[in-house]
Write a structure and sequence with these properties.
The chain is mostly helical and 338 residues long. It has 9 helices and 5 strands; from the N terminus they run E-E-H-E-E-H-H-H-H-H-H-H-H-E.
């Protein structure tokens, strides 16, 4: 919004060249410098962060995002999310972010450790087509999405409380993190059409969610940079999984080959702004593109944390696709509907 673009300081050239603070009730630095503990707590809890000079802003020039638009629908409560043209996302590259610090190596080690156990439990084999059964594919996807929807909600919650506590703007991070969590939940309910989890599976998901929630919120309070790097590495594995799934769908001997022609659910086709000829394969390809976006965004969030934490989230140029409620209604949302 235009309000998020307001500057924290203004300069009155007619009087003097001293920056004049606007509506910040707290000083930028504590008055007592002799108590290191109070100084740390003040800066971490309530001290507002000074604005970043334009020359120090980090721009996502290296983000490898698929070509996309943003969709806003007045048919339901879905948040604005990325939609794609299928020809633009037929190929999604698998990237491996090279760790540059000890915390990055820790995040990568955690993902690899969890990945080995997860691959063994789901009998995952990306090299051979037709080895995994349909049930194993669906089990892997359901468990993956039930866990992947946790970090975005935790990060949004922590940043929301931080914004209220410090009484300063968040510059678009909360909205994007909430959309990421909601997007992962949409993926989950798509795969649940192919499986009705039993009591044991639900218990495993419950235990994993409790442990994953505790780990995520602990790490995010201590080091948000490390947590976003962890999610970025986790999404790299998700892209790897869905690339293998697409290969299984397209292979003549693949266990998911029926998804190549099976009509997509109407709500999922509408979510991705696809026509009535969309198939299950098209939905899986869109999900893979979503995971690619989450991968790039979380690596970017990790790069921005620190001195660039308060930079405006670089959305770039948004191209909106607004679906009408009726076939003959003009595109757009009226002021009354808003």
């Amino acid at each position: 919004s235009s309000g998020d673009l307001e500057k924290d300081y203004v300069r009155d050239e007619s009087v003097n060249s001293t920056p004049v603070p606007q509506a910040y009730p707290f000083p930028s630095t504590p008055r007592k410098k002799n108590n290191k503990i109070l100084t740390f707590l003040f800066k971490w809890c309530i001290s507002p962060t000074p604005p970043i000079p334009k020359e120090q802003l980090i721009l996502p020039a290296t983000m490898n995002l698929p070509r996309h638009k943003y969709s806003i629908s007045n048919l339901g409560s879905r948040m604005p999310h990325m939609v794609y043209a299928i020809p633009d996302i037929e190929i999604i590259e698998e990237t491996k972010r090279v760790p540059t610090s000890c915390m990055d190596r820790l995040a990568l080690t955690m993902v690899k450790t969890v990945g080995v156990a997860f691959n063994f439990a789901t009998r995952f084999n990306a090299d051979k087509v037709g080895v995994m059964s349909k049930e194993q594919w669906v089990n892997r996807a359901v468990f993956l999405e039930s866990v992947a929807a946790v970090p975005g909600m935790i990060a949004a919650m922590v940043r929301h409380l931080r914004s209220l506590r410090r009484m300063e703007r968040d510059h678009g991070w909360i909205r994007h993190l909430l959309e990421e969590a909601d997007n992962e939940r949409v993926h989950l309910f798509f795969f649940l059409r192919e499986k009705n989890p039993g009591l044991i599976f639900r218990l495993i998901v419950w235990v994993a969610q409790v442990l994953f929630f505790a780990m995520n919120i602990t790490f995010y309070l201590i080091s948000p940079k490390t947590m976003h790097r962890f999610v970025g590495y986790l999404e790299e594995e998700a892209v790897h999984t869905y690339n293998a799934m697409v290969r299984d769908i397209e292979a003549p001997n693949g266990t998911l080959r029926e998804w190549k022609s099976k009509p997509a659910p109407r709500d999922m086709a509408a979510y991705y702004n696809l026509d009535s000829t969309a198939t299950y394969r098209d939905i899986v390809v869109c999900i893979r593109a979503d995971e690619c976006g989450h991968r790039e965004h979380n690596h970017l969030f990790s790069d921005l944390h620190g001195e660039h934490t308060e930079q405006h989230f670089p959305h770039g140029e948004l191209q909106l696709v607004v679906r009408p409620t009726e076939r003959n209604q003009p595109h757009g949302i009226s002021l009354t509907e808003v």
